[in-house]
Amino acid sequence: MKYLRLILILGTILSIGIDHSNAQIFPKIIKKDKSETQFEAKERPNIELRGFDQESYLRTLSSITDSILFQNNVNLGKVRSIVSEDQDYMIWAPTNRLAKVSEQILIDSIWVTAYEYYSSWDSKKIDIYNFDVDQFQDTVKVRLYDTFFGYDWKLPLDETPVTSRFGYRWRRWHYGTDLDLITGDPVYAAFDGIVRIRSYDRYGYGYYVVVRHKNGLETVYGHLSKILVDVGQEVKAGDIIAKGGNTGRSTGSHLHYELRYRGLAFDPEIVYDFSAPKILSQELFISPATFSHIAKARQRVYHRVRSGENLGVIARRYGVSVSSIARMNGISTRSILRIGQNLRIR
Predict the structure, then answer these.
(1) In this structure, are residues 294 and 264 in contact, taking their beta carbons and an 8 Å threshold?
(2) Crossing angle (nearest 10°) for helices 311-318 and 322-329
(3) Which of 171, 256, 301, 335 is most solvent-facing, going by the fewest CB within 10 Å?
(4) Which residues contact 64 (CB under 8 A, 6 or more apart)?
(5) How far apart are CA 328 and CA 343, in angstroms?
(6) Chain Cα centroid distance, residue 311
(7) For 45-68, how does the pLDDT look when each residue is reduced to its tens digit (9 = 90+)?
(8) Cβ pair 158, 221 in contact under 8 A
(9) What are the CB-based long-range contacts (under 8 Å, 24+) for 146-149?
(10) pLDDT (tens digit, 9 = 90+) per residue, 158-208?
(11) Domains of the chain
(12) Mean pLDDT by 10 residues, the chain (346 residues)
């Protein structure tokens, strides 16, 4: 009987110890009040995952030149100005598959928008870059071609007799070099690139093409009889892009050929010897001296009115607008001009 009581007492003590240990192992469940729950629900949207912003990503890409030339590795943390960029590279993002969609270009799934690619893309206007030559003080080296990387060059015609040079003529500035041809002669892309403009200018270029090149330059081909390429089409140096002609403001069959950097034309004969014919160097150094003609062109120009001339005729002759002539001379765009009247054009 004593043993039974002893067993019962020990069992009671042990059961109390087990319950106590269990109370230490299992934590109490604390119920949160409504205010804390509501606060969490409000804060939750702030930690949701966001989608990948492809447009912002592309805008941070750092290119070697103002075209889509890239180094082997792209530094996403640094965007350099055009005057400090080293253009001594001929490495282009993978191509071979290119299609135009509106004002965008697709190159192997890389969308090059107006913001990233040359800072803008316009298939209607030639000079779209707003390049201020007065602020341009550096010397930029441009690698025109590099056969090691497979990028070649080609003269725009098979034969290149010069009929009119770059410079001031007929009381206006001639921004290209005229090369003689027979209507229907093939016109070639000078360097690898992408067609930016194919258009028609009744009072100027006639049918013309603008090609944006991998080396950072653009070329203009004017007075064509037929255009054989489309906007957004990738071309290689030597590809036939058009046939020569006599369209627009032209007095005979010839090719008006321009070289431009950031929208500003410069003398093609610092790149080519058309009489040889050959390209002068693999590299081109662009400096303020390259655009010295801009200062001359910006000097004041006056015109003495002749018989049969009106504001429209004079404006087309100098490549300016009627409204600008009227504004500089304090007259109306409908004013009747008198013979011998002096008008300021620039």
Answers:
(1) yes
(2) 110
(3) 171
(4) 70, 71, 85, 86, 87, 89, 91
(5) 8
(6) 35
(7) 444 445 555 555 555 543 333 333
(8) no
(9) 146/90, 146/282, 148/90, 149/90, 149/91
(10) 999 999 999 877 667 889 999 999 999 999 999 998 899 999 998 889 999
(11) 162-296 (2.70.70.10), 300-344 (3.10.350.10)
(12) 60 53 44 48 48 54 37 35 37 39 41 44 84 85 89 95 87 87 97 93 93 91 97 92 95 96 94 96 93 75 84 86 87 87 82
In one-letter notation, the amino acid at residue 325 is I
Two tokens, residue 274: 């058309």
Residue 217 neighbours by CB under 8 Å, 6+ apart: 142, 144, 191, 259, 260, 261, 284
Strands 264-266 and 98-101, by their bridges, are: unpaired
Q: Distance between CA atoms of 80 and 184, rounded to whole angstroms?
A: 44
Tokens for 145, please give them.
Answer: 């071609």
Tell me: cis bond preceding 186? Omega within 30 of 0 counts. no
Beta bridge partners of 107: 98, 110
